[in-house]
């Protein structure tokens, strides 16, 4: 199964750790055989972001979430089942947060 960039998946452990969703951040062009880069989503009210641009707020399923960009991880692709939606419309915000994490800009 191909994971599309910015597709959202239910956390495979039923929201363990307060993260109900995971978002695929890896470009479709950078397909790897066994893993995909993700970041967890957490309900926005649970995060007091000191630097909001590092934890972008997105709307998904009618609720506000923060994407935990500093918690990027590569996970086995088989953990991600069927996408439940996409936050592709938040692309610019997400890429800016990734830039901030890696370049400080």
Mean pLDDT: 91
Q: Number of helix segments?
A: 1
Tally of separate domains: 1
CATH class descriptor name: Mainly Beta
N-end to C-end Cα span: 34 Å
What series of H and E elements makes up the topology?
A: EEEEEEEH
Level of helix content? 10-25%
Largest sheet: 7 strands, antiparallel
Number of strands: 7
Instruction: Give start-end ranges of low-pLDDT stretches.
Output: none
What does this structure look like?
This protein is of the alpha+beta class and 105 residues long. The chain has a single domain, classed as SH3 type barrels. It is built from 1 helix and 7 strands. The chain has one helix at 91-103; strands at 7-10, 21-24, 35-43, 57-60, 63-67, 73-76, 85-86. Strands 1, 2, 3, 4, 5, 6 and 7 form a 7-stranded antiparallel β-sheet that branches. The radius of gyration is 13 Å and the shape is globular.
């Amino acid at each position: 199964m191909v994971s599309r960039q910015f597709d959202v998946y239910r956390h495979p452990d039923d929201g363990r750790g307060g993260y109900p969703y995971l978002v695929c951040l890896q470009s479709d062009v950078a397909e790897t055989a066994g893993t995909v880069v993700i970041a967890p989503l957490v309900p926005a009210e649970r995060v007091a972001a000191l630097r909001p641009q590092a934890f972008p707020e997105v709307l998904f399923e009618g609720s506000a979430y923060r994407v935990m960009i500093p918690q990027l991880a590569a996970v086995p692709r088989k953990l991600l089942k069927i996408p439940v939606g996409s936050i592709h419309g938040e692309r610019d915000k997400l890429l800016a947060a990734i830039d901030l994490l890696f370049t400080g800009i």
